[in-house]
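A quick aside before the break. I want you to see a complete sequence-to-structure record at least once, exactly as it would be stored in a machine-readable document. Don't worry about memorizing anything.
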Amino acid sequence: MRGEERRGEVLGWVLGLGVGRGSTERVHSGLWRRAEFAPDFRAQFFDPEQWAELFQASGAKYVVLTSKHHEGFTTWGSPHSWNWNSVDTGPHRDLVGDLGTAVRKRSLHYGLYNSLYEWFHPLYLSDKKSGFKKQEFVFNKLLPELYDLVTRYKPDVIWSDGDWEAPDTYWNSTEFLAWLYNDSPVKDTVVTNDRWGSDCSCRHGGYYNCEDKYNPGKLLKHKWEKCTSVDTFSWGYRKNMKLKELLDLPIIIQDLVHTVALGGNYLLNVGPTAEGTIPPVFEERLRGVGSWLKVNGEAVYSSQPWRVQTENSTLPIWYTSKGSTVYAFLFVRPWKPVLELSAPITSPSTNVMLLGYPNRLKWSPIQSGGLMISLPLEIFVGDLVWTLRLDNVK
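That is the input. The structure line, written in tokens, reads:
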């Protein structure tokens, strides 16, 4: 577990229950008063069983809930955030605990997002004014809250954020992580990301995030995760979002395949409403991914990057592998009944299948290397991604 995500668990969903990141300047300027938001966030229709069923149907293996975003509001009854949490005000409910129970009931791993810094907290602002020479916020608010979160809910993932204004020495990250990995209730199971100080991103952590919507474009030696959002303009919920501003299903699946082929995990954000519901347009995306994974999931779950991640054949192709089985993903509907792949090295025992199609496909070796595959064009409908399975190839 240390230094690497669990193999095969490459898909997750993250839920934002805070003020959107794009709101920072207006919040700081005092145009908005944070306390006025709490009564409007009621989550009266929040049904954790319904949410968990959706995440399971999406094919996710882990779920990450925002326990506290940069505005400091906690979605559990934090004793260190008096009257600025979901139990004392707003929903009057322990959202972290209720969702965790429902998610784990379905054998999904449960993670918690937590922002280190808080826009408004007077202790943080005082520490910042001192050039982070003081740590009043860290020892009186941040660390006690983190210890409480871990001890109470025992998360499988801690997704840290809000670290970039100060070094890890200010956040006292090494001390907390030493406790987490050696003495905490989750010391043998927990996974953490790399956002523990302004000097840590893409350098330290069980897995790397590096930056939002990160894609290295190459195979990395260290486990990494791409976090992105269905809404391309926000990590929260926007009442004025437009369909053209959302990732459509084919793009999401292609993005997932790119990520897995390069050895990464894929974390997809959907923003719930203040009433505690997941908008139908987000639900449609999640269930669509789940339907695709029911057919193509064997090429994703527990797969490994192959010796070749992509090739420019007659169509753009991306690869994953499991031992002597190689999976080739087609992003474009074939326009002719043959497909040439140059990367696989065949043998007399090579078999070729199209996932979701019952019959073996005919193929022939190419003298210069690779193979030519005969395709049943009648089944290539829609605009999704199709997967070829090649057994006994190198």
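Two observations worth writing down. The longest strand covers residues 62-68. DSSP finds nine helices and 15 strands in the chain. We'll return to this after the break.
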